[in-house]
Amino acid sequence: MRARVWGCRGSLASPGRRTVRYGGNTSCVEVRVDDDHRLVLDAGSGIRSLGYTLEAEAPRAIHVLLTHLHLDHLQGLAFFLPFWRDDAELHIWGPASPTRSLADRIASYLSPPLFPVHLSEVPSRPVFHDIPDGPWAIGGATVTGASVSHQGPTAGFRIEAGGCSLAYIPDHEPARGTDMRRVEPEWISGHSIAAGADVLFHDAQYTDAEYRNHVGWGHSSVGHAVAFASASRVRQLILFHHDPSHTDADLEVMRNEALAGWEGQGAPRLASDDMVVDIEAGAVAFSTAEEPELPLLLA
């Protein structure tokens, strides 16, 4: 299994000199388990560059798995090249609502006056799915989605293939009303998704001091991310959903805080745009991908 980070910033894209090392694009992680199906976790601004890569590789089907519909996880969908291809097989999965379909809720953004083209006119004619109650298969992967603690209907995802597992919970406040050190792990939000995972991408938006002023906002501190990963016995924690105000230097201070509190194997790492994570039975390896060469549209 291979995962590539195309965006790891939370709330708002934040390009600039002070975020160049870890990146400014909002949430998007590509997961490959076979050549025919591509899994895309969230559709933040990072999905735009991914679209150029998929245009060249042309997988048979693309599955976009949306954890929730806050704008930083959806804003890139309209700029994703396969979205505008009439020959693309595009599936979009997201949390169910008791009142409106997934397509209707996404159309609230992808329609005038917020966007010039209505979702119903998009050439790819994407197929929309509510996240099932139990595991389901996408190509060679088994995917599980479950509700987690955040504002509004929100899911975390677990992807398993070839004896490897990846958990993705980018927006999560498991510590709200809970001392994770004093309860059984099964009672902690998100535990069923993360338990025993080889790799966990997890919300770490705040420092521990910042969190005190953001209780109930739906996000974790670095200390909470470490506590959750430890309770879930994950092999490798990747700190994700960086606050837009945090510079590269700020993030490295937060990483050091995570290292100080970590007692397991695989020291916590900061997610960065273009990070590649290769997961094989018994091993997790990291590298950096080259940025895709974008076409000259006006040539």
Task: Describe the protein's topology.
Elements: E1 2-7, E2 28-32, E3 37-41, H1 47-57, E4 61-65, E5 90-94, H2 102-107, E6 127-130, E7 136-138, E8 141-147, E9 155-161, E10 164-169, H3 191-194, E11 199-203, H4 208-211, H5 222-232, E12 236-240, H6 248-261, E13 269-270, E14 275-280, E15 283-288
Structure notes:
- This protein has 299 residues and is α/β, with parallel strands linked by helices.
- It has a single domain, classed as Ribonuclease Z/Hydroxyacylglutathione hydrolase-like (Metallo-beta-lactamase, Chain A), CATH 3.60.15.10.
- Helix content is 17%, strand content 26%.
- The protein is built from six helices and 15 strands.
- It has helices spanning 47-57, 102-107, 191-194, 208-211, 222-232, 248-261; strands at 2-7, 28-32, 37-41, 61-65, 90-94, 127-130, 136-138, 141-147, 155-161, 164-169, 199-203, 236-240, 269-270, 275-280, 283-288.
- The strands form two sheets. The chain has an eight-stranded mixed beta sheet. It has a seven-stranded mixed beta sheet with strand order 7-8-9-10-11-12-13.
- It is globular.
- The model has no long low-confidence stretch (mean pLDDT 95).
Radius of gyration: 18 Å
Q: Find the count of extended strands (DSSP E, 2+ residues).
A: 15
Percent range of helical residues? 10-25%
The succession of helices and strands, N to C, reads EEEHEEHEEEEEHEHHEHEEE
Backbone shape: globular
**Terminal CA distance:** 37 Å
CATH homologous superfamily label: Ribonuclease Z/Hydroxyacylglutathione hydrolase-like
- Numbering strands along the chain, what is their spatial order in the largest sheet? 6-5-4-3-2-1-14-15
Mean pLDDT: 95
| Helix segment tally | 6
As for the number of domains, it is: 1
**Low-confidence spans: pLDDT under 50, at least 5 residues?**
none
The biggest beta sheet reads: 8 strands, mixed
